[in-house]
Amino acid sequence: MARAFILVLDSFGIGNAPDAEKFGKPTSDKGSDTLGHIASACARGEGDKEGLRSGPLSLPNMDRLGLGLVAQKATGSRPANLIDEGEPKGLCANAVEVSIGKDTPSGHWEIAGVPVPFDWGYFPETQPTFPPEMTKAFLEKTGLPGILGDKHASGTVIINELGEESIRTCMPICYTSADSVYQIAAHEEHFGLDRLYEICEIAFDLVAPYNIGRVIARPFIGETPADFERTGNRHDYSVLPPEPTLLDRAKDAGRQVLAVGKISDIFAAQGVTKKIKATGNPMIFDETLKAIAEAKDGDLVFSNLVDFDMHYGHRRDVSGYAAALEYFDGRLPELEAVLQPGDLVVLTADHGCDPTWQGTDHTREQVPVLMFGPDIAGRYAGQRNTFADIGETVAEHLGLASGKHGTSFLKA
Ligand SMILES: O=P(O)(O)O[C@H]1O[C@H](CO)[C@@H](O)[C@H]1O
Ligand SMILES: [Mn+2]
Ligand SMILES: [Mn+2]
Fold first, then answer.
1. Which residues on neighbouring strands pair with residue 49, listed in sequence order?
2. Any binding-site annotation on 187?
3. Domains located in the chain, CATH noted
4. pTM for the whole structure
5. What is the ipTM of this complex?
6. From edge to edge, which strands make up the β-sheet containing 274-276?
7. Which parts of the sequence bind Mn(2+) 1 (predicted)?
8. Which atom of ligand 1 is nearest to the CA of 153?
9. How far is the CA of 106 from the centre of ligand 3 (A)?
């Protein structure tokens, strides 16, 4: 029996990547450290929030698997309160990304064995940010009276700023970020969810010449800034990975590929045999456990826990991020309890999003790789110089052909 379960803690970086000085604005991402800075803030009492959490960061389960150790390897110093000095119980590493972007698709595709060798297109930090001829074509093809926004923005801020006007005028809010994205926010009922999806599909074709990775539908509800809220009906329209990934290889070999949360969207459904929709880390964790119960010999479960990034990293919310990590860590024993001989679990991340850092964008960081299972021997597997080593390890574990990139942990 060999099954594999990959859980991506979206944005859970453990210290700047060696090339971090090439990323970030106005100053670089050098020194960014999602885990380390959260741990330090919590140790200083700055992660306390009434009714949510308090005190030093407590992640005993991930620490036991080697989290503190790999973070120390990444930065040279141990995050505060990650104090388990015993031999790591997980097959663990700190990993560096070779893809040029610090975005979600690049990180996930590289984890699945396919680094992104080209740079994405990005929209400039001007207003308007989108090329006028592209917007003109968008209005013609959709019949919309106009668009609002047309600038770089944080999604929650721009909905508060323009949500009421969008409801009144039936114009969607179009915005971007330091990621290669065209995002469209519109009211789920007044504008209509189906209509939002329809205009996103039109936009997806129009952004292709600009080498943009994703169009994202960001539906919201509420009537005023006091109660505007984004819903779980977010939908990402992504370009295809540049080569077949681990998911394609598993599917082609007749295996089930169970994709929980955003995974199917991130891979444009390529190589996915079942898309399992789930919103919010608690539900995503529940659905992951259900998918594991459904997985047969040779199958792959791939989950993305998006809250770390979307609700806490981008929102620069230290206590929220800390509480989400503690929640996840607290549920790991449930996952360990359902493992069978031959199972391999991988906990990792796709990039950083340091909630203490400047701005609201991702940070170029190393990520943790914590692998475990009933027959997996724990040890530090050295710094990995591509996330593709994760995909190669899973491929070897599942008895799939190896890919073009990366080296399995099991070989070292
Ligand atoms: O500010 P919001 O809308 O959450 O946007 C964030 O989510 C997008 C995709 O993950 C990124 O572009 C990032 O800026
Ligand atoms: Mn991400
Ligand atoms: Mn993000």
1. 53
2. no
3. 3-118+242-398 (3.40.720.10), 132-238 (3.30.70.1250)
4. 0.96
5. 0.96
6. 274-276, 257-260, 300-305, 3-9, 343-348, 367-372, 91-95, 379-380
7. 10, 350-351
8. 1
9. 12
